[in-house]
Amino acid sequence: MSADAITGFRVTRAGPLALLQDAGRFGVRHLGVTQGGPADLHAWAWANRLAGNRWGSPALEITFGGIELQAECDLTLAVAGADLAARHNDQPLALWRSHRINKGDRIQFGNPATGLRAYLAVSGGFSAEPVLGSVACVVREQLGGFDGQGLRVKEGDRLSVAAPSGQTPKPDQAPEQEQPDYAAPVVLDLLPGAQIADFTGRSLFDAFNSEWRVDDRADRMGVRLSGPPLQCRIKSMISEGISLGAVQVPPDGQPIALLNDRQTIGGYPRLGNLTPLAASRLAQCQPGQSVRLRPTGADRALREHRAFITQMVG
């Protein structure tokens, strides 16, 4: 926590899972440490931009809602992402826009209506001491978060915020086209992987022409997809590095899309890799929701990602 940080919120009720996340922990995977960071990069980035923060500023990732915060000072904040019935002093709080709140005000989150994860950003960003260069909270590895020990936010915690560093130009509201409808049909762009030629022709047809159901076995490590079993001719592999969005296919043929808290290496064949924005979209899918996979090329995926980053930091 920086010397000029102040207490921004007191947690009066803790929900199931609220974690501090900056852009992620990089350059440490050779140590077996995963990246962490926001499961939905898109919503996290927009919350920070609407709060007037630079790229990488820590924000609160709220999964399933249920948390209540009381402001300990006047603040500018923004909430983007899932509709978790956010309220300000018992009145509905509009998403995807900035708000000014006063000391003593209460911010509450209820149950998910659409999506799973909302992001709360405050002007200046939340403040914590970095661990291995990041405050990203990874519970499994006991790293990051407000205390550095990888603990989720709990009742009674006081959440520190940093003083805003000058005026950063920001919009008051995200454009309508940047506000996803998380209940709409989901199509996920996938870059074909190194082992894709080793899947049977029938499996490749099924992979890209079937609806996949999001299994209830889903968390920040990965999301299992249920559908027609995919068959691969490779029966064993030497473990190799695993990137964000990698879609592994274990022996049961049901794909697993790996997210931010994934393991650093894996030995299952990969159908391919979701683009970063596709991985973000999947992270908002509720159990039972249907998704489709769409093959895409590296050039298109790179253009899309560069355009997104430019929009967020420009």
TrEMBL record:
Keywords from UniProt, A to Z, are: ATP-binding, Hydrolase, Nucleotide-binding
Give GO MF terms, alphabetically. Answer: ATP binding; hydrolase activity
InterPro entries recorded for this chain? CT_A_B, Cyclophilin-like_dom_sf, PxpC
Record domain Carboxyltransferase: where: 30-308
- Matching Pfam families, A to Z? CT_A_B
Which protein are we looking at?
Biotin-dependent carboxylase uncharacterized domain
